[in-house]
Each structure stands twice: as structure tokens, then as C-alpha cells.
Design a protein that fits this description.
185 residues, mainly alpha, 9 helices, globular, disordered N terminus
């Protein structure tokens, strides 16, 4: 019984990450970035891989410089590669690491497009496309699949590698962003 209660207990760090995400979604990008940085310092480079993956994944969205965004997305992928289904299940029973990869690779592809590196973008877009089988038939999965398709078209139209995909987090006129929703912690 106590073990079940432990599993059901909320993860305080994920809650704090989620609070910073809400700030960002509400338009307070600077405050969100500051909180993410404080949490990153608290977690540390050797901290829990799921926390690092989630935090870096969201921190990337608060960056002004595409190179900084890429660095955070690379941190997220690196942390995800340290996870196994059993370690991620310690946080939530239904959490499977393979579900992270389509979005992580899609974000990296988008970063590389912003930096004018279409070959690297194509590589990560192919990896995102190859990992979509892990996605559910739900709003999140639909959003990631659609974003992959948009980025593939964008790269194809720009003369980049033809077998790649559509935009992920590309800014559009009016400031809205394209791409899959970031999965909430």
C-alpha cells in the first residue's frame, strides 16, 4: 500500500517545471527562463535524467538565439538517451522513453533549419519520422506527426534534403509558433 502511495505521489520537481512552463505559455518568457535556469542549477548535470530531459526540452523554447535553443535541445536528447522505460516508469507507470524521440528529433531538426544546416536537419527529421510509431493516436501524436510533415515540406521547398519534414517551432507572421505541443510534465 505504501509503495502504491509513493508511486501516486506527485514529483515535486516535475510540478515546479510545469509551473515554469505555465509562466512561459502565459507569455512571461523571461521569468520562465529564469526559473528554468534555477531549476537546472538545482538538478545539476548529473541529476535525474527525466527531470533534465523535460527541463531542457522546455528551456529550449525560451531561448532567443537559435544556437542556444539547439544546445538545450541537445541536452534534452542526451538526457533522454540515459533513460530506460523502467527508469521513466519510476516517475509514471505509463511513461515510455520512445514517446520522447519523435518530438526531440523534430525540435533538433527545426533548430538546424534555423541555423541553415539542412543536412543535419534532414538527419534529425528522418529520425523523428522513424520514431513516430511510438506516438499515440491522440492530439499530441497528431500534432507531432503534422509538424514533421510541415517541416518535410519546408525543407523540400527550400531545396534541402527532400526526405525530411515540416516546421516545428518556426515563427509565423503574428508571432504564433508552429509545431507540436510540448508534452506537459
Amino acid at each position: 500500500m505504501a509503495e502504491q502511495q509513493e508511486q501516486a505521489a506527485p514529483d515535486a520537481m516535475m510540478t515546479r517545471i510545469g509551473q515554469a512552463v505555465m509562466l512561459h505559455h502565459a507569455g512571461d518568457r523571461e521569468e520562465a527562463r529564469g526559473r528554468f535556469l534555477a531549476l537546472w542549477e538545482e538538478i545539476g548535470e548529473g541529476g535525474d535524467a527525466l527531470h533534465r530531459c523535460t527541463l531542457a526540452h522546455y528551456m529550449a523554447d525560451t531561448q532567443d538565439d537559435p544556437a542556444d535553443e539547439l544546445a538545450w535541445d541537445l541536452r534534452a536528447l542526451s538526457a533522454a538517451e540515459e533513460l530506460t522505460d523502467s527508469t521513466s516508469a519510476e516517475h509514471h507507470r505509463s511513461l515510455a522513453v520512445r514517446v520522447f524521440y519523435p518530438s526531440l528529433h523534430l525540435n533538433l531538426a527545426a533548430d538546424y533549419v534555423k541555423l541553415g544546416r539542412s543536412e543535419a536537419a534532414g538527419t534529425h527529421l528522418r529520425r523523428a519520422r522513424g520514431a513516430i510509431g511510438a506516438l499515440g493516436e491522440d492530439t499530441y501524436g497528431d500534432g507531432v506527426r503534422a509538424a514533421i510533415g510541415r517541416l518535410e515540406l519546408r525543407l523540400k521547398d527550400s531545396g534541402g534534403p527532400a526526405a525530411t519534414g515540416g516546421p516545428d517551432r518556426f515563427d509565423r507572421p503574428g508571432g504564433e509558433r508552429l509545431g507540436p505541443p510540448r508534452q506537459r510534465p
